[in-house]
Every structure is written in structure tokens, then in C-alpha cells.
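Working notes for the structural subgroup meeting. M.R. asked for a predicted model of this chain before we commit to crystallization trials. I am recording the input and output together here so anyone reviewing the notebook later can reproduce the run.

Input as submitted:
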Amino acid sequence: MSTITRAASGALRRPKGDPLEWGPPALLWFITALLVAAHQGSVLTLAFPVLATMTGLWLYFRSPARYVGFMWWLWFLSPEVRRLADWSKGGFTPTSLIQIAPLAVTMISGLGLIRHYPLLGQRRGLPVLLILAGLAYAYMVGVVSSGPLAATYDLANWLYPILIGFHIMANTRNYPEYRDTIVNTFIWGMLVMGAYGLVQFVIMPPWDALWMLGSQMNSQGDPVPMGVRVFSTMNSSGPFAFAMMGAMVYVMAANHRVRWIAAVLGFFAFGLSLVRSTWGGWVVAMLVQLAKSNNRIRLRIIGSAILLAGLCVPLLAVGPVAERMQARLNSIVNLKDDQSYAARNQFYATFAKKAFTDVSGEGMGATGTSTKLSNDGGQLGQYGNFDSGVMNIPFVLGWPGTLLYLSGILWLMVRAMLASFKLRDDKFVSSSVSLALAIFAMLVFTNSLVGTGGLLLFISLFSILSAAHWQKQQRRRELILHGGT
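Returned structure, recorded in C-alpha cell form:
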């Protein structure tokens, strides 16, 4: 048993340096940098999604764990590549093929449903089957109500988080490698995105300003130094804040030398994103970790929080940074003066009845950016901006779809929680539990089960279940070895 515990909770190792694994991603980013430097934005727009998809396919079969890390880097950096391509071309483009790259690479994991379909009939695969059934129902409704294009695009956004989770479950035997890859990716991602986020806030690069003006992102502040809500290399402050929240939770499971530098940069940029829901989510995650950890880990978490506060709070309390932070914090205390809170309350009051009494549901393509595809003018539809996950789920999935979808997710969460109590010594499991609960609690503010939040949720849940299954496999091997001797 001690051997298994040491294997599951030991120092995180860097993935082995096989050139056939790290070479293709490195080549992709090198070619990207060359095309940006050469101002070949049009070529980059066409080449990037093709090369990214080819790289993703190579890694999916060659190194399934590295494939997950590469997928995350695409979500982290592709929006910035798109902005650099537009800037190189000299103008903003409303739609870009580059934004397809992370979605296409993530959807490659759907091959796992074909390759490992027997898992769906096993006890650990039944929750996935329920979730897929709920999404299939909503897709059929959406094809009729919103059209096949909008419904298919929306289905992909709901589907890819669960596909990545299934991919992790299907490769349980490689759990330590997945754990290391995920933590490594988020620590280095926090370092890169946190540093760039500070540059963005202080300088406001012209390609980011072009993006803000062209996409009319009024909610992100002003495209001037000290005037933006930091979104770093991602599309907007919301997904960026989700990624930083995940990174700051995973930092507790890391042993990297750069983790504190990354945490300081990430925490500072996270604060400047001004996304209150993820601030609250991070606090929930930290409280869950404190509750589930032993005294030694609790002291580490408290010490880390004090260190981060000591390094970051003074910087967040001076000049224009302090003014923006103070205004945002005051809005939490003085809710009656908060326009965003008032708008959300009004939305709940007027829309709740429609959302919860629409038995059949509106189907895929009824909300979010997918409404552009069902709108002849290419603009967001009536429900393009949908802040509440609590109402978005029943409104889109209907009662049948919601029952199937949420039954699968709650089943996964209960199993993950029970498994986590048997894996107290695995710091990654502890981080994953706290992150999953925090993301689920954020449904009140946004549909955190899709997009970046959904990826974090399902990766966390399936990593916990994989850790438990992997430990059982290790026990069986030890019994066989001892039995043989």
C-alpha cells in the first residue's frame, strides 16, 4: 500500500523528452512565429488550423497524455494567434479559421467513443452514456428549431468537455502521466498568460486593441493602457479567469521551482480580469481544499495564501489598479448599486418561468454564439448572451435532456467525491475535487459546464475516477507479484 501511495502522490515528473512527442507541437509554434514575423497573416489563417489538427491527431495516437496538454495550449494561445494574424493582414476579420483549431483538436478525442465503446456499457461509463443521451435529444430538437449548422456548432461546445473526460477514463493505466501533464501545462500556462496579461494591462498591444475594437467588446473595458479587463492570450476575461482559477488550484499539487513566480503573475492578472464569479469560485475551491486536507496540507495552503497576498495585494492597492479593483470589490458589497447584479436579477425574474416550464426545450443552437449561425445577419440572436447556467440548461435541453444530462453529471460527482476520500494523499485529487465543486457552484452565474469551465470540470472528475481505478490496478499487480513469490 505504501508503494502505491508514494507512486500516486510523489513529486510530479516532467514527461519524457521524446522528440516524436514534443517535436510536432514545437514545429507548429515555430512556424506560427515565423509567419507572424513575416506578416503572413493570410497564410497563417489557413495553415494554423490544418497544422494544429495534424499535430493533434499525431499526439492522440502517439502520446495520449501529451495530446491533452497540447489541447489546453491551443485553447490558451489560439485567440492570440488569431489576433496576430489579423494585425499582420492589417484589419479585423469577423470570423477566422484559426478559432476552429482548438475545437477541432479537442473533438479528436471523440474517436475514443469508437475505440473504447465497451466502456459505455460498464458501470464507470454509464454516466457518460446518460450525458450523451441528453445532448443527443437536445441536438435533434435544435436541428428542427435552429437549423443543423447552429445546432451542430452548439453541440460541439457542449460535447467536447465530456469527450476529453472520456479520453482520460479510457487511458486510466496512464493516470500518473496525465496528472503530470495537466499540472505542468497549467503551471507554465499560468506563467505565460499571467505575464502577458500584465503586459496587456500596462501597454495594450495594438493587435489586442484591434480585436477589442473590431469585435465591439465593450464589456472588456477600453482598449488603452490601464483601461482593459485583462483577458491575456484568450478571447475574453471570462475564459481567461476560468483558466487562471484552475491554475491557482493546481498550483497546490505542483512541485515546480517556477510555481511561485507563475502564481504571483497569475494571481495579479486574475485580479485584473475583474471577473467576480471566478473570484468567488476560487475562494470556494480553497475552502474545500482546507476542509478536505490534513493539517500539514492546511498549513501549506494557508502559508501559500499569505505569501500570495503579501506579494500581490500591495501591487493591487496603488494607482489606477487600486481604483479599478476597489470599484469592483465595492460592487460585491453594495449590490443595490451594481448594474450587472440588477440586470441578472431582472433576467431571472422575467425569464425563469419560460426556462423551467419549456418541457421540450429549445434545443442546441438557441443560445450563445451559435445563434449567429441561425441568424441571417450573422449577429447574436435574442439569447446570445446568457449569464445563467441554472436556466440555460433546462431552456436548451428541456426536461428530458436535463434529467439525463444532470443525472450523469451528479452520478460522476458523487462517485468522484467518494473516491477522493480514499485518495487523501494525492494532492492532485484534492485539487481536482475542490475545482469541480467550485465550478459546479458557479452555475448560478454562468453555464460553467461548457467551454473552459466544462473542460476543467470533466477533466477534474475523470482524473479523480482514473486515480481510484489506477490505484486498484496497482493493488492487483502487487497481489499478483506477492502471490507469485
